[in-house]
Amino acid sequence: MKYKELTHAVIGCAMKVHSALGNGFQEVIYQRAMAIEMGNKGLSFAREMEMDIYYSDIQIGTRRVDFFVENAIMVELKAIAQLKEVHLSQAINYCEAYELPVGILINFGAKSLEFKRVYNTKHPENIQYKNMSAAS
């Protein structure tokens, strides 16, 4: 996969942060630590990048993605006890809304780090995922 190394690098940063901090902090603490760690790894990113949401070519709102990494993938962070289907749906919706092929949902709130790569099956680069689950 085209984005495998990039998603692997971001997940590696999350593992390092979770290993150092554990669970129990607010999301913003993990967000700050991720910014430091991704910077240390030489990854370019925008933090809390505001992006427009469109419906029928009309801008209907905005959403801030936690990280937009290497101008290629979005990273959504959570600090909750357990990821649920609604969180996966939210991450997939962001990928679709921003017309990105891949995103990562990371949860620092559980005892063990949880992460899911999410795929926008409507993106031309992801035709092979059309009949598969949108998260892995």
Our measurement of the CA-to-CA distance between the termini, rounded to an integer number of angstroms, reads: 13 Å
Structural class: alpha+beta
Assess the beta-strand content as a share of residues: 25-35%
Helix content: 25-40%
Radius of gyration: 14 Å
Quote the average pLDDT.
Answer: 90
Number of helices: 3
Task: Specify the biggest β-sheet.
Answer: 5 strands, mixed
**What shape does the CA trace take?**
globular
Total strands: the figure is: 5
Order of helices and strands: HHEEEHEE
Taking pLDDT < 50 over at least 5 consecutive residues as the criterion, the unreliable ranges are none
Biggest β-sheet: strands ordered side by side in the sheet: 1-2-3-4-5
Summed up, the domain count is 1
Notes on the protein architecture:
A 5-stranded mixed beta sheet has the order 1-2-3-4-5, sandwiched between helices. The two termini are 13 Å apart. It has 136 residues and is an alpha+beta fold. The longest helix is centred in the N-terminal third of the chain and has 18 residues, at 4-21. The chain has 3 helices and 5 strands. It has one domain (4-129). The radius of gyration is 14 Å and the shape is globular. Helix content is 33%, strand content 30%. The protein has helices at 4-21, 27-40, 85-97, and strands spanning 45-55, 58-69, 73-78, 102-107, 114-119.
